[in-house]
Structure formats: structure tokens, C-alpha cells
């Protein structure tokens, strides 16, 4: 006897062909039966009529910076008057202005801000959201933001330590000393408190060098933590190849990645995470190497990159549309980018990302005529239900 079954459903499992008249059952929070309706002969304690809705795996947003305080609307105005993102960062605005606001906020304030932001993801059927630190930069605030991420409710949260996001004001001109501090103090302290699922860095001219990034990765390895990287977003520092060399779960952004970097990702089995929100919001023109990623068979994930400076985007659906219109991904690729490949970018492919027997019963119901509509429509939200661990009232 299964706990619950959804009948009269259309299923996009993201692991096989579409099922136009399907049934999906859940037991103990996992998918306990899935297939054609006519083959469903078992019993369930609760029977739900999906009324012809499409069921897809719950979306996985594998790259966000959700926990922060303050607003950067003013910088948006400056950029519209001609200032560049890099100029604003060099003048002490940018990430550092969010760091000041985040340091000043209490843990309770940060939690209430982030939980409120998260509502948009819940409304669009998200199951998993990755959340990075990186707006604290001192030890206490990095730990504070990661604790907040762990306290968020309604989705499964994966935390990523991003202490090497920017050089804090108190280390001005002493980047290597700051990397020492991250390697010796902040990262080990965060890991000891079990606040870290993965380790990331911002490898960029305006942030940290490949050598500094490699030092962080060595510490992550010693602590037994997987790595990911903000790679080649604004310039090609060989970030993708560096991530691949360290067996990264993913390399993210990749606008400036050369073909050799793509080949390295293919060899290491790392996922390419594309972030069309930042591309759009910074009005970038250099496209990530989509054709090469396809040619070399690198799995492509998508994410919102939600952050206050370069991608104030809170909608997975809009990110999918942007990936199609700006990067020319197909709707099927966009859907895979927020499900099966995103799961892999977080190392959770054995439990999430597809609708298959034994995986988490985390899925969403959509009132649409075909799955492609999710990537096609702009500004609509046809989500009519969200199930988490088999539970249709997934409040916490
Ligand atoms: N890359 C980005 O685009 C964001 N962080 C990063 O490493 C920008 C974050 C910000 O501007 O606050
Ligand atoms: Fe980012």
C-alpha cells in the first residue's frame, strides 16, 4: 500500500519519454511507483486527481546568493547612467556595500529577508535551492549567513562557502593575507560547525587569482568538501580548467571560457552552470560557449544566480526563458538545466532531479499544454501544486 498516488497526470520525468496518461505514487517521502496509468493496479491511502496537469521534478536552483541585507537599486541607476559593474566595485560599492549591510544585520533579520525572498521559488515549484555565503567575509558574519541558510524552510537547502567572494575593506591591499585567513580560520570553522556542503570562489580580475583560488580548493579537499567555481565571467583566467583540475562539481558563468576549458570540463565530468540573469542584468554581450559545451557533451545546468548586484532575479521560470532567448538553449535543455543537470551540479543526482523510483517525491504540478511552455511564457506562473517528500502541504 502506497501513501499517496497522483492519477490523471502527465509526466515529464526528465529521465525518459513523456508519459501522457500517467500515475505517480509516493511512500515515506520517496517515489514508490511511476508509469502509465493503465498499469497502475496498486493501492494508495490517498488518491489525488491531477486533472491533467503536467508533473515535473521540483526545480533545483543550483547557484544563488540568497542571504544578504541592503539594496543595490542605486547602483542600478548608476549603471544606467554609464558606470560599469567593475567601476562600481572598484569604488567600494558593489559586493562590499552588501557586506556592510549584511554585517550590520542580525541573524533574525537576515533570516526574515531570505525567507521572504524564497517565496518566489516556492511559488514556482522549487525543491532545492543552493545558497552561498560571501556577504560576510569576516568569520562571524560568514558563519551567521550560513546558519541562516540552514534555517530556511520550505525547500531543501544546500550551502556553499564563498569566503573568497571579494576582498574585505580591512584586508585592502593584502589579498594573500585574506586568503590565509579564509584557509586557516573561516572555512575550517564553518566546516567544523557542519555549515558547508561545498566550497566556491570568485576567480576574476576584480576578485581572486587562480593561485589564490587553488589554495582554497586545497583546504576544501583536506576537509573532504567538494568545490565549485565562479569561472570566466568577465575575463578568461582559465577558471574552467582550474575547476576541472580540482574535480569540481561545477564551473559557473563561463562567458569567456575557451574551448580548452570546455574540454577540461568534459574530462572531469563537471557541470557547466549558465547564469543568464547576470548576463542580462549586466548587459553582457559575450556568450558562453554553448556550441562547444554541447559538442563535448558537458551537462548544462541553469540557475538564477540571485544576488543584489549582478542578478536580482527570483524566478527560475524567467531564467529558463532568458537561457532560451539569450543563449539559444532549447526549452528541453532549459528544463534539464533546472532539474537533472542542476542536481548533478550539487552532487545530489542520486536523490533528486528526475522522477524515478526511489528518488525524493519532490515535484510540481503545472497547468500547461506542454513542458516547453515553461520556458516559453514570460511572467506567467502556471504552477498549481508543489509536493515535497510526498506531502502536498510542504510548509517546512
Ligand atoms: N559573481 C557575480 O556575478 C556576483 N558574485 C559573483 O561572484 C555578484 C555579486 C554582487 O555584485 O553582489
Ligand atoms: Fe554568483
Provide key terms for this protein:
396 residues; alpha/beta; Urease, subunit C, domain 1; TIM Barrel; 2 domains; 8-stranded parallel sheet; 7-stranded mixed sheet; 15 helices; 36% helix; 21% strand; globular; binds 3-[(4S)-2,5-dioxoimidazolidin-4-yl]propanoic acid; binds fe (iii) ion
What does this structure look like?
This protein is of the alpha/beta class. It has two domains: 2-57 and 355-392, Urease, subunit C, domain 1; 59-345, TIM Barrel, CATH 3.20.20.140. It has helices spanning 73-80, 85-90, 95-104, 107-123, 139-151, 175-192, 210-222, 239-245, 259-268, 276-281, 290-295, 316-327, 331-337, 340-345, 373-376; strands at 2-11, 19-27, 30-36, 44-49, 54-57, 59-61, 126-132, 156-164, 198-203, 228-231, 250-253, 271-274, 300-302, 363-366, 383-387. The strands form two sheets. The chain has an eight-stranded parallel beta sheet with strand order 6-7-8-9-10-11-12-13. Strands 1, 2, 3, 4, 5, 14 and 15 form a seven-stranded mixed beta sheet that branches. Helix 5 (139-151) crosses helix 6 and helix 8 (239-245) packs parallel to helix 9. The two termini are 26 Å apart.
